[in-house]
Amino acid sequence: MNNYRNIRVTVQENIALITISRPDVLNALNSETVTELLKAVQELEHDPRAHIVIITGDGKAFVAGADITEMNSKGPEEARTYSELGHSLMRAIQNMGKAAIAAVNGYALGGGTELALACDIRIASENAQFGLPETILGIIPGWGATQRMPRLVGTAVAKELIFTGEIISARRALEIGLVNRVVPDEDLMTAAMDMARKIKHQGPIAVSHAKQVINRGMDRPLQEGCGLEIDAFVSCFNTEDQKEGLQAFIEKREPRFKGR
Fold first, then answer.
1. Active site residue ranges
2. Max Cα distance, the chain (Å)
3. CA distances (Å), 235 to each of 192, 198, 208, 230, 242, in order?
4. Is 71 in a helix, a strand, or coil?
5. Domains plus CATH for the chain?
6. What digits encode the pLDDT tens for the residues 120-143?
7. Using one digit for the tens of pLDDT, what is the confidence trace for 25-43?
8. Which among 104, 119, 120 has a CA at the least distance from the CA of 168?
9. Coil, strand or helix at 168
10. pTM over 0.85
11. Distance (Å, rounded) from C-alpha 75 to C-alpha 81?
């Protein structure tokens, strides 16, 4: 992978790990870091070695938010460019043909919560904290939280979190459905890797199709969404993986998927 200033990217066991590494500022996302994350996600999308992507933070924070110092100097047009850059990153994660897991190791505030929301699965350590405190700054979330949060936890809870800027614990995040599971701090990466291995064991084309159908169907009427599912289901039958998966089941052996 490329040499980055603010992130580290490794690939092992077909699992890509992106670590945001600006611990001196609690991994706050400035434009340079967002640009690096976007480039890494785009490269991993086309990297045959990477079947799953895990995103985490270095030190005691996942991402403590966007870089307030950088935002303080922006006018309206610069704010638009900054918001559009963040949306490009979140959209790239959400739309990539590979599952993305957020391993939330500490503070996930503002842009950190938005980054976690863009991922498919969120695993949090017990000391993780989530929040969207933008309104205390006189602004609103600018990287998708006003849209993704209501779809995940419901409109009423999303409005409460955004209007009040309340910071919530990992346990509360689990209660409202913001995260999939909470684990002891020392077990976070083990849990994330275990989840990644479970997904990696499945047919990669099937996982990709399932992700895309779920995402595309969320905002459509049920019948239309079911139509998307039918099309994707049929598409699987044009793949070698489908034939291998069914044959392996019949032969009572582990499938050897090739992603084609």
1. 114, 134
2. 64
3. 30, 23, 12, 9, 10
4. helix
5. 7-200 (3.90.226.10), 204-251 (1.10.12.10)
6. 999 999 999 999 999 999 999 999
7. 999 999 999 999 999 999 9
8. 104
9. strand
10. yes
11. 10
